[in-house]
Amino acid sequence: MKRRHFIRLGTIAITGLALGACTSRITTSHVQQPLIYSAFDDDEGHHHFGLLNLQTQQLRSVKMAFRGHDVLQHPTRPNRAILFGRRPETRCCEVDFQTLETREINISAHRHFYGHGCFSADCLHLFTTENDFNRARGVIGIRDTITFQHLGEFPSYGIGPHDIQLMPDGKTLVIANGGIRTHPDFGRRKLNLNSMCPSLVYIDSESGKKLGQYTLPDPQLSIRHLLITPSGDVGVALQYQGKRLPASLVAWQKQGQALKLLDTPATVIRALNGYMADLAFAPTSNILLATSPRGNQIMVWDTNNERYLKNIPVTEPSGVFFLEQENSFVISNSAGKIMALDAETLQLTKTFYQNSAVKWDNHMQFYS
Amino acid sequence: MKKIIFSLIVTGLLVSCSHNSTKPSVEPLAVSTSVGREDMQRRLLKKLALQTIVPLYQQFYEHTALLNNNISSFCLTPNQQYFNQVRNSWAQTVSAWLRADALLFGPAIEEQLDFFIYFYPAKKRIINKLLNGQETITAELVAQAGVGGQGLATMEYLLFERNLSSEEILQNYQGQNGKQRCQYLGATAFLLQQHAKTIYDAWRPEQGNYAEAISRAGLDSLIYTEIQQPWAELINKIFQSAEKISSNRLALALGKKTESQPKPYKLEAWRSGHTLANIQASLQGLRRLFDGGLLDWLKQNGHQITAENLTHTMADFDQEKLLHTDLFHLLQTNPDAIDPFYKKSKVLTRIIKHDFAKAMGVQLGFNDNDGD
């Protein structure tokens, strides 16, 4: 399950809310050892999709022909997970980690993937963020979760949709429109840095109708990665595309309220070099964590009062999720570590795994 | 290339993005505790800008002007001598551009000018549509065709064909069709010269003075608020240029990325056989930057070994005989012969990434360089 889904499920266990039947199906039917899915690169720069067993330290992986970004456990097919190709990749890949067989998910004509996706609450549909590059608009591709047949698409109501998540109501999709125009002819070049228009958009997952759209004061703050809490609050990791000092690099939206930047001291922001990667949330303490690989920092906020708490030095941290059983955040980094940070003391407590040849990518998914 | 840039520019002007407030709040920067180091960084950036970067762009501009002139002479008298002169001039111009490959920041990428200069692969469909059309091929028409129908790769398409001899290609420039082809060459060369001038002017002190903008970063520069920004930008681009040689120009064509057979048609200049000359030019550009002050900086700041490693690795390339061969032919006949050179290029990339960047105080991590 997606790290955000995991958090959600943890809360389900406590509150008994019937949320995301699709994701809960995984945990009830396939309770196993603690596993982490993530993309990684090796020392030679080859790309892999890996499944790490935290208990046995065994890493099973498949070498990939492309660099992936986010990963998702398949909601109904045990042992299988999807790696999303990052822009301007035209492939995603489903891997069966028991047999190590792979199945490609191909893009439609004149589209490419952006590295993220999520499932519908009924597990029938896979939503992916995509670029309709000839018309310079973002779209959400809709596929059958079993056959991966393309069934249609919704507009993302913006340019450069990156992360996408299903809200706790099981109906609403929230999309991070990064606002950056790219075209595969130009590789990964950002083509509109002076006219960016990032937005956080909510759409109905059945009709594709836009339900809400939010922007930030600084249009050069690209809205990239999302964290959804069980109560429907949204955390946003930002990436700054300008040359001045941004006001913040993380935004927060309490459900139904305005999207606003979380306060962060200017001296700290300066050290982050304009780039935040992943986010996680501890419902037990309402602590929000964000990773800054460029700044070699973990950033911490208390969402109760939306107050900045501290920064913790960690070498190039990348993925992060909250592990309820241990009341800890689990953090990966590009130096091959998977480590725990206590959600109460906010201290690094242990290293689950270490292999310097494994450069973990920006996201991971926990599955137990 | 479907006029993408032009539509981009127009879109950029038309799109209005409503925001919650008018101005981003910009915190004043903290006073640096390493003013001495920053001053040294500024001095080095200024030196590199004035003594290396501006001359590189000046040379590129001069080559585009010469190419333009040579094309005019050729089109007046389309004979073998002038044709050879144009092809040589094209080769010199590509090399001059690629010597500035590690400088793809600031003016060179403003409005994606670099793509207008060297976008590959050229879009054959667009080029042939123009060649086969009834309209006179003007600079305006070529400009409207977008990046895939202009620039150095388009000129290569017009000037080279592997299956045809130079004499046979020259035949394409005779008669009415030849006139159309010459118009195309001339219009492309004109635009190329304009773009080269734009970048050169933007850098030179008498004009846009970007040299000052980077060396005054964090003081009164209107572009950079901190010296670390242009500093990191330059080091990043040096790394990307080196990585482009090993990963894109070589690994892709050698089939290393997909563990497949070599793919000569993936080479950036396979028609002309200029790929290795392109790589050599990029290496020369890196050498100019290292010799222009970066190696001295390393030595003065306790990184003697890194400086020596870089010097030796770059010198190794000077001895490389492969740089004077046709990579397309080599990939078809003896691809293993390129392996030592490929490995050498990876060594250079590794030194820049792991030692040089670190010594310069710039982080080029896995996820932070281009993590998405």
Report on this model:
The complex is a heterodimer of chains A (368) and B (372). Chain A is mainly beta and 368 residues long. Chain A has a domain at 35-269: Methylamine Dehydrogenase, Chain H, CATH 2.130.10. Chain A contains 3 helices and 28 strands. In chain A, strands 3-2-1-28 form a 4-stranded antiparallel sheet, with no helix packed on it. In chain A, β1 and β2 form a beta hairpin. Chain A is globular and about 50 Å long. In chain A, 54% of the residues are buried. Mean pLDDT of chain B is 88; it is low at 1-16 and 18-33. Chain B is built from 16 helices and no strands. Chain B has helices spanning 4-14, 35-76, 80-98, 113-117, 124-132, 139-144, 151-159, 166-171, 175-203, 210-215, 228-254, 275-300, 304-318, 327-333, 339-359, 366-370. In chain B, α2 runs antiparallel to α3 (80-98) and α3 (80-98) runs antiparallel to α7 (151-159). Chains A and B meet through α3 and β28 of A and α1, α11 and α16 of B.
Q: What is the element layout, followed by pairings?
A:
The complex is a heterodimer of chains A (368) and B (372).
Chain A: H1 3-15, H2 21-29, E1 35-41, E2 47-53, E3 59-64, E4 68-73, E5 80-85, E6 91-96, E7 101-106, E8 111-119, E9 125-132, E10 137-144, E11 150-155, E12 161-166, E13 172-177, E14 199-204, E15 210-214, E16 221-228, E17 234-240, E18 250-253, E19 259-261, H3 266-271, E20 279-282, E21 287-292, E22 297-302, E23 307-313, E24 317-323, E25 328-333, E26 337-342, E27 348-354, E28 359-367
Antiparallel strand pairs in A: 1-2, 1-28, 2-3, 4-5, 5-6, 6-7, 8-9, 9-10, 10-11, 12-13, 13-14, 14-15, 16-17, 17-18, 18-19, 20-21, 21-22, 22-23, 24-25, 25-26, 26-27
Chain B: H1 4-14, H2 35-76, H3 80-98, H4 113-117, H5 124-132, H6 139-144, H7 151-159, H8 166-171, H9 175-203, H10 210-215, H11 228-254, H12 275-300, H13 304-318, H14 327-333, H15 339-359, H16 366-370
Helix pairs in contact in B: 2-3, 2-9, 2-12, 3-7, 3-12, 7-9, 11-12, 11-15, 12-13, 13-15
